[in-house]
Automatic annotation (TrEMBL), chains A, B:
Belongs to the protein-tyrosine phosphatase family. Non-receptor class myotubularin subfamily. The active site is at C421 (phosphocysteine intermediate). It comes from Sinanodonta woodiana. This is phosphatidylinositol-3,5-bisphosphate 3-phosphatase. The lineage of its organism: Eukaryota, Metazoa, Spiralia, Lophotrochozoa, Mollusca. Substrate binds at N334, K335, A336, K337, N359, I360, C421, S422, D423, G424, W425, D426, R427.
Length: 645, 645
């Protein structure tokens, strides 16, 4: 009887200890061992070079074998596998990794200009940790875990991706001091006047990631230019608004002069421009920064007329909804700083509402609390109430609810919506991109989400460099905030509510977030299109994340995507009881929070199976057709003229 | 451009109000309208007659059309569609259903000997409520919502399935009084000396549900009898232990006399017998009630020797693990009542541990709190901490963790485990059946779970009638408890952790629970095999739930089941952060908690698609073969003898 084989394939002993010791979790978390866990997880996230991961895309049959071979090769030495352009900067033996989930591991620590690579020497297969330096937020030397002897010196590494790493060694010596210094140096290249690794990275994917987003093509897809909207080149050289894209969708009748005048009345010049237009009703989503009304309630005729033009371009509604992402008190407070919001008296036909989304500081604090809860250990008994106390899901709910409100007005009232916050590059980007994803099934495909991110986030100047703090040693910088992470979290929440409506899978979303921090690709570097394209020429000098993704697209496809079923508008339910903590991202470093089943493999398997069946059907049909054709020929009377035989 | 069609198909207006009004939930829950919601949900759960639902199994193409036609027919009149054997008992017009999620609905209320059927008269399509009387726990006349005029008399109906219903009418009159009295009467047939509807139900499924479980075949499947175990007929007439099955798996060397002596030392005679045996190691799971050691610590040589026989039947371990499901204090307290647990001194080689699962009263109270939270409205802001305060998930965790402990010993230590609690029919059944499901992939198939329920729950005398309170007007009976519901909840939790490991889907689990209460089938009636089979002859006089299920099996199949991947032992992680409130069951009456996508339809679609593709491949292959055969014949030289042409 061979009804059951061996146990669960993923880290069996660990899994077992896990489940059986549910009463004393924190103890078991210290005592379980899982030799390959960190290695496998870091492979998912880190070092995504073509040479390491590319095998996945070429043929799903060969992957494991090829990957295994490479792992074996590396296992021969303590040295780190290197990406093209990567150079070892330092190396130290007899370092201890103080893993919070297993026994401490002794091994060799290597630092390159891209990553930190630790390889254990006391286990087989070796324990491997492979972390891009870009995720490091702070490096701290602290007193060791014991005051003398073993592990007396400690290095604490605080990461941006919800984990911390701690290394220790017996006593200071040259090579160890050097390797620790190299981490400090290469983790913060901007601070240390070193190039970001994306500019050193020499991989060739043979896929044109930088061409994924073509603004004119995207306007065309939306039907622009049309009778009411045109593409303006007034900002082509980024001279009018340095944080806006080169091409702007504006009302057809708006002159360049007018655009300049409106721009002068909006914070940072960010005048209202087109994000999306409904293919039938022509109701639009436009975005901007706040009007500079100030405490005096200044008015600006050009701005008011321009808003009327936006309203009039939509024949279905004589109203324009202005959705201010902020809580109303914050919007009011901004008047003191010269900002504020549109008064309904001045802007006739406009209805202003506030979406109550908190600012970047509140969001940063909420995520900080969440990290404390999920890393390194979780208090199981208070899990739910602890999660509630971070308010993370409340914020996610509020953002998602805001997106639904925008989409609802556009779809169900055929009304146009103008979205803004203060500067219009954080909450505004969250709202427009989520609403667009609800309204337009194109953005729910893999390439569609790439385009959406390029368009609403990158081209409209979400300050990725400031919010993430790329390459800078300023852990407590008040400009850092998980704004883009929240957007991706909201997308994930939508995929949970509509599991068949999205072409991409969870791995795609996690991969985007990993490379938000990694600095391996040029995609998320710098703060605006102007900086990226004009100043730093990332298209010429770095690789696009989308090259990496699209090169091995199969890895990121949801096998349950039912395109034909989902050509309509999706309205996710934004309530606490329908939202979940995205454990697959926030808790993934904890081996006890990993999925029980290898969903990733199963997904790929389903795709392969589907492709095989479809191919088989095609082959057989072809064969039948050709046989039928021959049959017809054979049965034809010989006397017919054999023209095409 | 037709990139997007109409909106979400399920109750669009409602869905919309939902999402957009996330800030003021309880208000919106009162104001939204969803004409067909209750109707569609009650169709899922109630009136599952062949004539109503059977179409699903015969051809998935015809279902909607046929169902629509029938719905239309019914729509012509206010009368309820009737099952074979169902008789209308009363009817009243102008009754108001005080729906907690929509405007109040006026309509006609019909009561039959099986169900309560309400049809609204003020909407098109009509609002329909179709509730088996079996789910009713209590009926209460209360003061109306207003003291005079409209809706001054009220009927409150407390249900066993996590909802309450409230009807009202302007003033007392004969037909309304009569229909309310009929509800009281037919909801509690046992109290009112009426037959349970299962004995009136005259459907013919043409599927032998009662034959799904054949104890001898199941023993054979497990390899019993073998060198160490035999099937004993000592209880064939239920004379030795009236709550045990007719056939018992016992150690081969145990004589009938010995079994009787051991039985006399166990509460209610429930001696240790075989539940499951490992196909390779021959480690066993046995189950029993507590030994009657009492405060004096009585010993019984027969019981001790018998336990040694169980231990010795497994060559791989010289230890037997006795897992007492109770908290140790409860086990100790039982000594005062003559019960208790095995002392390790008396039972050499045994290791006793306590699994800390609380008793039926604690569980009932926890579910009561949960119901208060989820029905009728949910406080979204405190959702997580409120859920935590019910401790429902803590209890689920404890039961699941207990199952894992049993399975772990059997699989990883190759050791045998004896499970008991006090009587051995509540917590013991939860633990043995969950452990068996983890260990044996057979029980993870649809028929396998049917067998598991028949075997570990029904044949071993889980007191379904007492725990559910079938047909009795004793709302506060202390014997009622959601023990079986907890088991099904644990199964659902396992399906969440291993989405590809189970052949059945969530709808199967919900359907089982619906018919736990409905009294439509004989399956869950009465307290023991003896009562069901010998006294009440349910096999002859009622239908089996499994006939209904297996007649339309496709509806209950998980399209993502990957049998070949899951022929091994599953160890679910039993920790709070991996468990979820089963909203698909507990919160399903709340329209705002329904899934956004019609997963049910999508599942069926996937199955149909798979079947079509497979059929196509087969057809084309057949065609090719026959053509090839003909081809060979044609190309053969004419001179060969044409034997088989």
């Amino acid at each position: 009887m061979d009804r059951r084989g061996s146990q669960e394939y993923i880290d069996t002993p660990n899994r077992r200890a896990d489940a059986a010791s549910s009463d004393s979790i924190s103890n078991s978390e210290r005592s379980v061992s899982f030799p390959m866990n960190d290695s496998s997880s870091s492979k998912e996230s880190g070092s995504p070079s073509k040479s390491l991961c590319s095998s996945a895309s070429s043929s799903s049959e060969n992957v494991p074998a090829l990957e295994m071979k490479m792992l074996k090769d590396f296992a021969q030495s303590d040295e780190s596998p290197l990406l093209p352009g990567e150079v070892v900067q330092g190396m130290a033996k007899d370092v201890t990794y103080l893993c919070p989930y297993s026994d401490f591991v002794k091994g060799t620590l290597t630092v390159t200009n891209y990553k930190l690579y630790f390889k254990g020497s006391d286990r087989e297969p070796p324990f491997i940790l492979d972390v891009p330096l870009g995720v490091i937020s702070r490096v701290e030397k602290i007193g060791g875990v014991s005051s003398k002897g073993e592990n007396s010196y400690c290095l604490d590494i605080i990461c941006k991706d919800m984990r911390n790493l701690r290394f220790a060694h017996r006593q200071e010596n040259h090579s160890r001091r050097q390797v620790f210094e190299k981490i400090q140096q290469y983790a913060f290249p901007i601070t240390n006047k070193l190039p970001l690794f994306a500019f050193e990275y020499k991989e060739e994917y043979g896929v044109a990631g930088w061409s994924v987003y073509d603004p004119e093509a995207e306007f065309r897809r939306q039907g622009v230019p049309n009778d009411s909207w045109k593409i303006s080149r007034v900002n082509e050289k980024y001279e009018l608004i340095d944080t806006y894209p080169a091409l702007l969708g504006v009302p057809k009748s708006a002159t360049d002069e007018e655009l300049k005048l409106v721009s002068s009345f909006r914070t940072r010049g960010r005048l209202p421009v087109l994000s999306w237009i409904h293919p039938r009703s022509l109701a639009t989503i436009t975005r901007s920064s706040q009007p500079m009304v100030g405490v005096a309630g200044k008015r600006n005729k050009d701005d008011e007329n321009y808003i009327v033009k936006i309203m009039d371009s939509n024949a279905h509604s004589n109203k324009l909804f202005i959705m201010d992402a902020r809580p109303s008190v914050n919007a009011l407070a901004n008047k003191a700083k010269g900002g504020g919001f549109e008064s309904e008296d001045a802007y006739t036909g406009c209805e202003v509402s506030f979406l109550d989304i908190h600012n970047i500081h509140v969001m940063r604090e909420s995520l900080r609390k969440l990290k404390e809860l999920v890393f390194p250990t979780i208090d199981d008994s208070k899990w739910l109430s602890n999660i509630e106390s971070t308010h993370w899901l409340d914020h996610i709910k509020q953002i998602l609810a805001g997106g639904v409100k925008v989409a609802d007005k556009v779809e169900n009232n055929k009304a146009s919506v103008l979205v803004h916050c203060s500067d219009g590059w954080d909450r505004t980007a969250q709202l427009t991109s989520l609403a667009m994803m609800m309204l337009d099934p194109y953005y729910r495909t893999l390439k569609g989400l790439e385009v959406l991110i390029e368009k609403e986030w990158l081209s409209f100047g979400h300050k990725f460099a400031q919010r993430v703090g790329h390459g800078e040693d300023k852990h407590s910088d008040a400009d850092r905030s998980p704004v883009f992470l929240q957007f991706i979290d909201c997308v994930w929440q939508m995929t949970r509510q509509f599991p068949n409506a999205f072409e991409f899978n969870e791995h795609f979303l996690v991969t985007i977030l990993d490379h938000l921090y990694s600095c391996l690709f040029g995609t998320f570097l710098f703060n605006s299109e102007q900086q990226r394209v004009k100043e730093m020429k990332v298209r010429e000098n770095t690789k696009s994340l989308w090259s990496f993704i699209n090169y091995q697209m199969d890895d990121f496809i949801n096998p349950l995507y039912a395109e034909y079923l989902h050509q309509h508008v999706l309205f996710p339910v934004a309530s606490m009881r329908r939202l979940e903590i995205w454990t697959g991202y926030y808790c993934r470093w904890n081996p006890r929070m990993r999925p029980q089943e290898p969903i990733h493999l199963r997904n790929r398997e389903l795709l392969v199976l589907k492709a095989q069946l479809q191919k088989k059907v095609e082959e057989l049909q072809k064969e039948r057709e050709s046989k039928n054709a021959r049959g017809i020929l054979q049965s034809q009377p010989r006397v017919s003229s054999p023209v095409n035989v």
